[in-house]
């Protein structure tokens, strides 16, 4: 029977989480050659590769399953430490890697998790992904949980609806007056620059299709929630922005709606491993309980 050597699995997790062998070695206090040897030994024991030597390295299908196992073992070990006083005395704060979209990180997330992290001595490693594709990080075994727009959970995981973020199509008054001689129509938006978060961001495309403007339009790319708003304020383009993020700018008239139509609400779901232990269960209950302070739940 194959017995896991958790030093080898820790090396695999570090390489994926730190996006390379050199940083993994620094994180574990080892030499880079020692990390390489541990990965090679793990692959020899399981009889197949666990990493694709890309830049950054990516787990194989087996590597993903091993990473998922490591994530869950870490959380279960924390539960055991809390139950056995002798183990709990020198316990370090737990680190949780969580994938979430940049707009959540820029708006409601900090207020939702701050008290929980302080009470439970949790350190967070945030992995920023578009809300449409955050599950790929869980599938790859890189994170213990994620916030994304997909409802269906992965095998071995659960999903819980948190609420919806309301987005409005906004631009600066200067941009509107420069490009539109009359109230803007959906067809007008296709011929003026938009701002899109990144290549995986399909929100503007969905919005254009919903209002009848088609899916083809010119756009800037800006992979920063804060930078996104600054670009709109500067008059560089129009874009879909969380209402939560720009209440002040709207009140001051720095941003205005470009269409009179309805906003678009994006549902957000919390995904976590079923066997993630007490900490993930408690965090899930906490998020479900307090997310309605920021997100739309009706």
UniProtKB/TrEMBL annotation:
Domain HTH lysR-type residues, every copy: 4-60
InterPro entries, sorted: ArgP (IPR017685), ArgP_gammaproteobact (IPR023490), LTTR (IPR050176), LysR_HTH_N (IPR000847), LysR_subst-bd (IPR005119), WH-like_DNA-bd_sf (IPR036388), WH_DNA-bd_sf (IPR036390)
Record's keyword terms, sorted: DNA-binding, Transcription, Transcription regulation
Gene3D superfamilies linked: 3.40.190.290, Winged helix-like DNA-binding domain superfamily/Winged helix DNA-binding domain
Superkingdom of this protein's organism: Bacteria
A Pfam short name: HTH_1
Keyword Transcription tagged: yes
PROSITE patterns tied to this protein: HTH_LYSR (PS50931)
TM regions (residue ranges): none
Single GO MF annotation: DNA binding
Family to which the UniProt record says this protein belongs: Belongs to the LysR transcriptional regulatory family.
Record note on quaternary structure: Homodimer.
Function: Controls the transcription of genes involved in arginine and lysine metabolism.
UniProt protein name: HTH-type transcriptional regulator ArgP
Source organism (scientific name): Stutzerimonas kunmingensis
